Predict the 3D structure of the following.
Amino acid sequence: MIPSPEVPQYGVFVARQTRALEQAGCVVEIAGLEKRATGKVGTVRKYRGLGSRSAHAADRMQPNVVLAHYLVPTALMARRAARAARAPYVLVAHGGDVTHLERSRPLRSGLRRAIAGAAKVVAVSPALAERLAAIYPGLDIDVINTGVDRVLFRPGPADLSAYGAAPQRPLIVQIGNLIERKNPERLARAAQRLFAERGGGELWIAGSGPLEEQLRGMSGVRLLGPVQPDQVPVLLRGADVAALVALSEGYGLGALEAVACGVPLVVSETAPVARDLPATSALTVDPESEDAILDGLRAALDMPREDPAGQARADAQADVVQARRMLDLLQAVAGRTA
């Protein structure tokens, strides 16, 4: 996954980790897709092309190690690229890929050899590592996420004038595509109830997707569409409350980014990131309960901004810190085969 002007948030975490690795002295070449593949034929064609590009890049570059994000189907591509370069490969599981494996026995069997052949397998959260270990017992799994960019995501002023009329307050912001998993409809209904109690307010959602039509007609909801990555922290800093109430997440890095910006957060109790966030900066809720989301929004409005414990947690999970951990792992893997 790599960002593009049309889909700027697609794979932005991969791009940020790449930049952090380059700053640490690595030479990195990315082979990726700029948008999701659609349809069976389109998916096969896109992934076949990605596999070929990956193998050709590895053969030309002769890297010390191949790093592949997502297991499905990139574990197979990583193994092919690693063979072309006669190098080891490392796989990173992000969440949806593990869900696919949990649901499909043929997929688990088809990828077993590629996953077992990896020099290292990384999961972005402990909870995800546990799920993956349940699928492949005995698999050795490290936990490293891509981290939060503390240069971008930090407290500070926010100018929201680029988004038209000033928002009604309180302003709730959620960053995420308009898909069922991100739970925007339930959040919107809870927000509307809050605004009715308080005599006004707005919910801004940055993202796009198939639920756009259902949400477009809802009062108090402003759909911003895709936003550039450098605008995400501006939106978060301008909010009174940030929300990430997705039904499922591999980790939930967006919640950590909101805390890093100093804004009170309402986050799904099921998101692995919730374990890493102090209660003084983030309130956990049942994402399937509209009442629970409403209660969380009410309580978050009374929380102070720029919580010191939240800032300390964001520092500990900075992208440069996580990239250093990833680099140590990659160097250890490359060193074993030197």
The CA atoms of residues 62 and 308 lie 45 Å apart. The chain has two domains: 12-147+319-337, 161-316. Strands lie at 66-69, 89-93, 120-123, 141-143, 171-175, 202-206, 221-225, 241-244, 265-268, 282-285. The mean pLDDT is 92.
